[in-house]
Amino acid sequence: MNNSYLKIAGIHKNFGSFTALNGISIDIKKSEFVCLLGPSGCGKTTLLRIIAGLEQPTAGSIFINGKDMTYMPPAKRNFGIVFQSYALFPNLTALQNIAYGLKAKKIPKKEVKERALEALALVDLLHVKDKYPAQISGGQQQRVALARAIALSPDFLLLDEPLSALDAKVRERLRREIRFIQEKLQITTIMVTHDQDEALTMADKIIVMNNAEIMQVGTPQEVYNTPANPFVADFIGSINFWKESRKGKNEEKTAAIRPEHIRLSRTDGILAEVEDVEFRGPIYRLEFKVKDSSSHLYGQSIKVDVSTHDVNHLKLVKGMNIHISLPEESILAYNELVVS
Amino acid sequence: MEAVEKSKRVQSFTKTKSQRAGKEEWLQRALIILMLLSFLSVLIFPLGTLFAKAFQNEEGTFIGIANFVKYFTTPSLVQSFQNTLFIATMTTAISVTLAFMFAYCLVRTNVKGKTFFRYTALLPLFAPTMMHGIALMYLFGNQGLVTKGFFGTIPGIEIDLYGPVGIIMAEVIYTFPQAFLIMLVALNGSDNRLYEAANTLGVSKAKQFITITLSSVKYGLVSSMLVVFSLSFTDYGAPKVVGGQYNVLATDVYKQVIGQHKMEMGATVGLILMLPALIAFIVDQLTQRKQVSYVSSKSVPYQISQNSKRDSLSFVFCSIISACILILFAAVVLAASVKVWPYDMSLTWKHFELKSYTGDGFTAYKNSLIVAALTAVIGTIFTFVFAYAIEKIRRMAGVRKFGHFLSIIPLAVPGLVIGLSYVFFFSQPKMNILGWTVSNPLNFLYGSIAIIVIANILHFYSVAYVTAVTALKKLDREFELVSESIGVPFYKTFFKITLPMCLPAVLEMAMYFFVNSMVTISAVIFLYTADFKLAAISIVNMDDAGNLASAAAMSVLIIFTNIVVRVLYEVVTKLIRQKNMKWQNQ
Ligand SMILES: Nc1ncnc2c1ncn2[C@@H]1O[C@H](COP(=O)(O)OP(=O)(O)OP(=O)(O)O)[C@@H](O)[C@H]1O
Ligand SMILES: [Mg+2]
């Protein structure tokens, strides 16, 4: 056996004539934190539901620890799940919500309470144990849902956009908290998200999906620094694309560079004019138009991220001319053409 | 050692879990199949039998549309068809207009006493339609209070009550609350931003009324028109009591089937009776889809502007309507409690003894209570469980969709047609399915209380079903999935989460079943037996026997019972809401 704990092999899913998943294969190691990242409608939730057994694949198999569980009912798969809506039972208190699943097992009453309290303590919410979901904040509800999911010591944890209903500050705190708990319990976790920051900050491994297919699998650094194709490059972070024809050959390729890799200088590089200045707090996003008619980038618009300090130093304003340079080592090359 | 023990324990968990998963799936499938079988035996087979009969002769041979041809060539039957159309059209015009104006006053003006007006408008729902007829007789009949000029104090007004005038008046009162409820919902669902936009553009009030108000309630208007039309088209109670010699379809059916034993003609008229409701049903299904987008979560409720002249006018209008309703009820209550109307107006309890040769008095009332209670309890259980199966179980999607369709079909079947089709289906010892003749396993139900209860449940099923589905839809779709993932069986979540959360809806369904079972006559008129009469039927029998005061007393008893049940419902609902305050969203 290889060392994959959860193996997803060639999953297809059709809804009528519509293909929601097209040949998805993933290997997930034990204790890994995996993010499924992709634009809306690409099939992330469908894949998660198939892993959970809430939906049957049209073709393909799912193995856990080498055991085929493609057609196993959800209750037997031993996973915990947190939905976007949390789905906390409104007529049960936080503690009762967590104890709900434990009670169904033949566990002594005392142990049920102990384990429920333990789970609540893990998410640091002992003080709201007797409150009903409607009486606690969204972030707290989210943590109760998480505690409920892990109280049964599941083999793996499934999270479907668990943070999308929360405001930015709470979100950031919960990212760290979820990751902390996951590491503490060493529980294999698959989280669906369409927020790239979330995936980049939390995941051991990111699976980028688009149009029912996997575009790239890799660590956050890999998908950001060496995106496998223009879609990933564009979907994660920002990027500049341009067409590049190869010397000698009658062939066109796509080149790309991230805005933060472009250098500015008063003297060296390609002459360009500042077309737009957008303030983003720690940095400025500048939009340049290449003015140098001898450059192969002539006429092209280029986004550049510049630190606030540099903008002030260079006294950059709209309409000003300055030189830009694109370091060779930061340029990405693709065979696919990008229409933009 | 410890580790071994632990792993054993874990094993035993997984084992019980796997067995339960199998059992649960089996249970869910069984539930859905039970639902399908129920619909088959109480809806599809009976209606199918009725349908087949309309195209057969007395011997049961297929004769195509000969029955319909015969129907439309028999002058007396054509006459009653025209009569029915006339009644339904007039009722619709009057009832919907009044209901719209009444609802408009309550929603769009600052008229005083809204709660009072609202409850008064709903009062007729608690009474059988015969009561409206009886009340009209006491007011406008030969010895009526108005006819006689209030004991000769003022000159009397004589109207030709027995016939179309009386029927239309009774039907308007009967259908008014139904139309009013639909208009209330329609008028409440408007977006104030539209009016604000119109005001800033300088659109005149009259034009706003036409372009915004009317267009935003047009579906409600169409819907209430269709409902009122089909209710008055198929009502049996009012024409029976104040119709005189004026024949309508509903009374025809009864005469054809019970009087002349012409089953196939009864079936033919039954199918014709179903037409308006069927059209209403189809139109409703089509418009409902469009209507969804009208009110969004961003909509702003209507802001009532200050206008005291409009408010006083509304007050006058609402008072007149309420007075009309209250006078009718007062007349019946009074008639039931005086010795001999209008000659000896001293009070007495004697009519409430319900001594009558034909009506079976108190026993009938007791029977009605039993039937209403059984209908409420059994109907609510079945409706809610079936709604749950359709809404929340993940298996057998196709069957569930079909189940949903079947669940709203009863909306299109008038009570009279239900009763008739039950007679046809349940009375036959053998039944014919696609050419196969088998003995009818449900024949034993015929002539029992059970068939009356079943007919009632089916008759009022759809409204209760929609109530249940609406409540279930408000619950998170994921509750069942979460339970499944943490290994809690679905029935446990049903009892611990779903049911408690839907308790107010469940009570509403039970109340609806009860109240309607008390007042209904159309379905059960064909199904009751001589030794199990019902209160609503005894009203008709007492009226037939000329014992009007007892009929009035029985009506009062029914109304009183229904009001008590309604008040009880309100009190219990309030208590539940208070208790659940903590977990309800503020
Ligand atoms: N039960 C279903 N029947 C038909 N189509 C479905 C069904 N469930 C999902 N789909 C379709 O499959 C596609 C993928 O859906 P899915 O919910 O997996 O997307 P997603 O990646 O989770 O998107 P989002 O980010 O919006 O949640 C969508 O186009 C959706 O419309
Ligand atoms: Mg999704």
Automatic annotation (TrEMBL), chain A:
It is an enzyme of class 7 (translocase). InterPro entries: AAA+_ATPase, ABC_SmlMolc_Importer, ABC_transporter-like_ATP-bd, ABC_transporter-like_CS, AminoethylPonate_ABC_PhnT2, Mo/tungstate-bd_C_term_dom, P-loop_NTPase, Transp-assoc_OB_typ2. One of its GO terms (molecular function) is ABC-type quaternary ammonium compound transporting activity. Pfam families: ABC_tran (PF00005), TOBE_2 (PF08402). Residues 6-236 form the ABC transporter domain. SMART domains: AAA. Its EC number is 7.6.2.9. GO terms for cellular component: ATP-binding cassette (ABC) transporter complex. It catalyses: a quaternary ammonium(out) + ATP + H2O = a quaternary ammonium(in) + ADP + phosphate + H(+). Keywords: ATP-binding, Cell inner membrane, Cell membrane, Membrane, Nucleotide-binding, Translocase, Transport. PANTHER family: PUTRESCINE TRANSPORT ATP-BINDING PROTEIN POTG, SPERMIDINE/PUTRESCINE IMPORT ATP-BINDING PROTEIN POTA. The complex is composed of two ATP-binding proteins (OpuCA), two transmembrane proteins (OpuCB and OpuCD) and a solute-binding protein (OpuCC). This is Carnitine transport ATP-binding protein OpuCA.
Automatic annotation (TrEMBL), chain B:
It is found in: Cell membrane; Membrane. GO terms for biological process: transmembrane transport. Residues 81-284, 365-569 form the ABC transmembrane type-1 domain. It comes from Bacillus aerolatus. Signal peptide: none annotated. Gene3D superfamilies: MetI-like (1.10.3720.10). InterPro entries: AminoethylPonate_ABC_perm-1, MetI-like, MetI-like_sf. Belongs to the binding-protein-dependent transport system permease family. SUPFAM superfamilies: MetI-like (SSF161098). The chain crosses the membrane at residues 30-52, 85-107, 119-141, 161-188, 209-233, 265-283, 313-338, 369-390, 402-425, 445-468, 509-528, 548-569. This is Putative 2-aminoethylphosphonate ABC transporter permease subunit. It comes from the Bacteria. One of its GO terms (cellular component) is plasma membrane. Keywords: Membrane, Transmembrane, Transmembrane helix, Transport.
